[in-house]
């Protein structure tokens, strides 16, 4: 039972991460590779408050949300100062700075040794993992509701305008930098909640758990999800989490299973990009012209 509960918690964590990236950051046309840093900020904030202050799990979720929001405000102010072409490189820099601070902050983060012994919650004698799963599922549902309301709001149209043509958005009076900052803050805040849940699931956090590979993993799931559908976000997160687990039951050696998993992920990404690519004139996917146009001499 513990195994299935951990799988469910992982699904909730990555649903939150994919939703935060796909519905807000990708909607504004921002390609980010600092999702691992946002996850680390929330995880460390929740772990520190839980182990040193003895705060309950629900309060740790609020702390993770607050830490992610503050991190989003700081990083958003910095990242909106760079050109769009350099945005992804700037997020990699932010990722490295955050992990460097965590790895060298022995007095606060315990450095490279990480923080162990994070308590798991248990309400009224309930199973601790079941409690984490319940809270994670509730947080995921709240984010889905907010994302649905956001998609129908005028702000969503503003972000669409910024993504399609930032110069045009500026020409009609849209504050493009403020819109980008809003997406970064929202994405980081959601990732902060996911980080707090992750910390209480694993009961250990360390810098090695939030490297650039984690950011690439989240970005890959976001590409599969697209930018508009919460359902697709959930399906993409489920695929990325469950595919490696399903390979365990095939009895493949670890080295072979890793290669098969990467091949499956790569094929899925290529397939997604092919079917979602615009059908420009002259491309193989372009629709045929009408019969009367083809019959012209």
What secondary-structure arrangement, pairings included, does this model have?
Layout: H1 2-25, H2 35-52, H3 57-79, H4 87-104, H5 106-109, E1 115-116, H6 128-151, H7 154-164, H8 166-171, H9 176-202, E2 204-205, H10 212-225, H11 230-248, H12 254-276, H13 291-294
Antiparallel strand pairs: 1-2
Tell me about the biggest sheet? 2 strands, antiparallel
> What order do the SSEs take from the amino end to the carboxyl end, as H and E?
HHHHHEHHHHEHHHH
CA-based shape = globular
**What portion of the residues fall into strands of 2 or more residues?**
under 5%
Q: Write down the domain tally.
A: 2
Total number of β-strand segments?
2
Alpha plus pi helix count:
13
Short description:
Helix content is 72%, strand content 1%. The chain has 13 helices and two strands; from the N terminus they run H-H-H-H-H-E-H-H-H-H-E-H-H-H-H.
Provide structural commentary.
The chain is mainly α and 297 residues long. It folds into two domains: 2-219, no CATH class; 229-278. Helices cover 72% and strands 1% of the residues. The protein contains 13 helices and two strands. The chain has a two-stranded antiparallel sheet with strand order 1-2. The N and C termini lie far apart (71 Å).
Q: Which characteristics define this entry?
A:
297 residues, mainly alpha, two-stranded antiparallel ribbon, 72% helix, globular, disordered C terminus
